Known about the structure:
Number of domains: 1
Shape: globular
Strand order of the largest sheet: 8-7-6-3-5-4-1-2-9
Amino acid sequence: MDQNLLRSYFSTIYELPSSDGLIRTSIDGETINDKSTLPKILNSNFAILTAYNPRSMLLPRRVNEQRHLVMRDLLILGCYRVEACVGFDDDPDASWREPSWLVHGIERQEALDFGRTFRQNCILHSQDAQPELVITDPTCDELGKTYPGNWRVRH
């Protein structure tokens, strides 16, 4: 995967809904020895998925929104609890924001399948407080290749 693209994925800030309020986080943190210090949501198993801009191709807003709603409906039909979240650029001057879905309890392989189906470069999956980017587009890198990260809570 292109190193600039990989860096941007790691520095993306995600706003995740939680019972403690909105959590702002990224996966470019340091190793955490005591994961109990993380917000509860980051200790759960989930994926962050989107259907926007397949293979980094900018699509019209209406097309992106329709694709995104189809993804949500399929996830709900699969009996997943799905909540809206957003990923955005760390740079305060940037205007990039991408709506995403926080999918609770989804297994890694099924999340990867959703990423492939909706032509995403990668998905973010987290299990036991260990986030990882998983390649879902074989033109970016080997399918299923994983780039492990560490949660970083942003304030």
